[in-house]
Design a protein that fits this description.
single chain, about 90 residues, mainly alpha, 4 helices, about 0% strand, elongated, FlgM_C, repressor
Length: about 90
């Protein structure tokens, strides 16, 4: 024989009301973000970034015009220094 619960026995109106209150309290709280002074300094554009951008633009123009020359000896020296003169 199977017995099902019918009626208000399975319902707790006080608990339902408390769940609604708790949900509204959770929504009221908001996150707060603070950016440190070090992070603000990192966000600023540095002169190095500007100089690098100018160099990249110059190299792009040289490649497009066909005047870019690769110095193979300088590359070989840099690779050698990197691997053998740590």
């Amino acid at each position: 024989m199977k017995i099902n619960q019918f009626g208000p026995l399975g319902v707790n109106p006080y608990k339902n009301q408390m769940n609604k209150v708790a949900a509204s309290e959770k929504q009221a709280k908001a996150d707060k973000v603070e950016i440190s002074s070090a992070a603000k300094q990192l966000q600023e554009v540095s002169p190095i970034t500007i100089a690098r951008q100018e160099k990249v633009e110059s190299l792009k123009q040289q490649v497009q015009s066909g005047t870019y020359h690769v110095d193979s000896e300088a590359i070989a020296n840099s690779v050698y220094d990197f691997y053998f003169k740590k």
